[in-house]
Design goal:
It is built from one helix and eight strands, in the order αββββββββ. It is mostly beta strands.
Length: about 140
């Protein structure tokens, strides 16, 4: 009985440890001014590349919002469920080579993401060179 309990405890600990060391999972995006969670983004893997979509919007008045400033096939589509991060490939400890969409202004930027600790994800969006851009941090959803 004790062996089974210890085995379960070790497995659970390893599971949480491995999960905490990956970019994949659900992340909270926080408002820069209030630090309140405004959305939840799920980062997932498809064909060896990283993608992310908005899976929750906390403001009930914005849950049916559409991306009216987007262009192409995203124009006037719901923000909830929208892929905002596309086609990043693993390069060492970061994922790069893809794009990120800012649904607030409808613009796409080159980007890279990497873990900054086990529960914080650094997202750097930029135009041209990474020196000309903006950094945001997402926090792992507990």
């Amino acid at each position: 009985m004790i062996k089974k309990l210890l085995f379960t405890l070790v497995l659970t600990t390893l599971s949480f440890s491995v999960n905490a060391q990956t970019i994949f999972g659900k992340w909270e995006n926080r408002d820069e001014e209030t630090n309140k969670v405004d959305s939840v983004i799920e980062v997932y893997e498809k064909d060896g590349k990283a993608y992310a979509k908005i899976v929750e919007i906390t403001d009930k008045n914005r849950q049916k919002a559409v991306c009216d400033k987007c262009s192409g096939n995203r124009k006037n589509n719901p923000i909830l469920g929208m892929n905002i991060l596309t086609g990043l490939s693993k390069d060492g400890d970061e994922w790069s080579g893809g794009k990120i969409l800012d649904p607030k202004n409808g613009k796409e930027y080159k980007c890279y993401i990497k873990l900054d600790g086990k529960n914080k994800l650094k997202i750097r969006g930029y135009v041209g060179f990474s020196a000309f851009g903006r950094t945001a941090y997402w926090h792992r959803k507990q």
